[in-house]
Amino acid sequence: MPEGDTVFLTAKRLRAALAGKELARSDFRVPRFATLDLRGQVVESVGSYGKHLFIRTPTVSIHTHLKMEGSWRVFHCGQRWTKPRVTARVVLSTEEVEAVGFSLGTVDVVRAGDEHRIIDHLGPDLLGPNWDAAEAVRRLERYPNQPIGVAVLDQRNLAGIGNIYRSEVCFLRRVHPATRVGDVSDLLALVDEAHRVLTEAVRKPPRRPLAYGRTHRPCQRCGTPLKAGLLDYTAPDYDRVVQRERGIYFCPHCQPVPPM
Ligand SMILES: [Zn+2]
């Protein structure tokens, strides 16, 4: 699942291809926007917030979310697409290139200036210009009983972390992902670590995971074989279990399981 760094880098590539260019053609292959035609509009900017991507013209902002399988690719006009045509959801063409969004989880178009409706509820963006570590800590502390490995995935606390980086950040801070938020000794350091790791990931991609996906491989600090597990939870302000939990990876020595 793409995380904040992937979305940030996708925005960068799309910006290089589209910003300042006039659209020669637009094709929205989702029923709601099938008749929308942005031909003649100039792409003003491309940006990201957490895992949300925005392509902006003077009148609208195209909001997409990659979710599980989504990706944006840029092709020269006439070049063969590298993914099945039927999975294309949005095509934006200039005179030179075609930017194609494949298997996107969300495609939405809002009026220019209405982006805030999409991002208002989110926590600070780890890769944004206004990253605010103290605010992320304040949001995390609202639910002290929640496992930290769950809390950092909640985009309302801080935006940009997915399943890979929650294991990475917990490993780097020697915190077991099941540890209650209220029992994490230095939340600010953990949040700073998340910021550091994602920032590094966009500067020098691809980043090799230290813990994620490394079951049975030796811990790079102490040599103990890493373990995988699952973290069950119900989000604190939801009535129902909303998340089918995905795997956590940790070192049983450096990150001991917290007492229940
Ligand atoms: Zn270890």
Give keywords.
single chain, 260 residues, alpha+beta, four-stranded antiparallel β-sheet, 6 helices, 10 strands, elongated, binds zinc ion, DNA-binding, Znf_DNA_glyclase/AP_lyase, zinc-finger, DNA repair
Category by helix and strand content: alpha+beta
Q: What is the C-alpha radius of gyration, as a whole number of Å?
A: 20 Å
Largest sheet: 4 strands, antiparallel
Q: What percent of residues adopt helix (DSSP H or I)?
A: 10-25%
Widest beta sheet: strand line-up: 1-6-7-5
The first-to-last residue Cα distance is 30 Å
Strand content: 15-25%
> Bound small molecules, which ones?
zinc ion
Number of helices: 6
Give me the strand/helix succession.
HEEEEEEEEHHHHHEE
Overall morphology: elongated
Poorly predicted runs are 238-242
Average pLDDT: 93
Instruction: Find the count of extended strands (DSSP E, 2+ residues).
Output: 10
Descriptive account of the structure:
The protein has a 4-stranded antiparallel sheet, covered by helices on one side. It has a 4-stranded antiparallel sheet with strand order 2-3-4-8, with helices on one face. It starts with a helix and ends in a 10-residue tail after the last strand. It has helices spanning 4-18, 116-119, 133-140, 148-151, 163-172, 187-203, and strands at 25-28, 45-49, 52-56, 60-65, 71-76, 88-93, 97-102, 106-111, 227-230, 247-250. β2 and β3 form a beta hairpin. It has 260 residues and is α+β, with helices and mostly antiparallel strands. InterPro entries: FPG_cat (IPR012319), FPG_N (IPR035937), H2TH_FPG (IPR015886), Nei2_N (IPR044090), Ribosomal_uS13-like_H2TH (IPR010979), Znf_DNA_glyclase/AP_lyase (IPR000214). It comes from Nocardia amamiensis. Its EC number is 4.2.99.18. Residues 2-88 form the Formamidopyrimidine-DNA glycosylase catalytic domain. Pfam families: Fapy_DNA_glyco, H2TH.
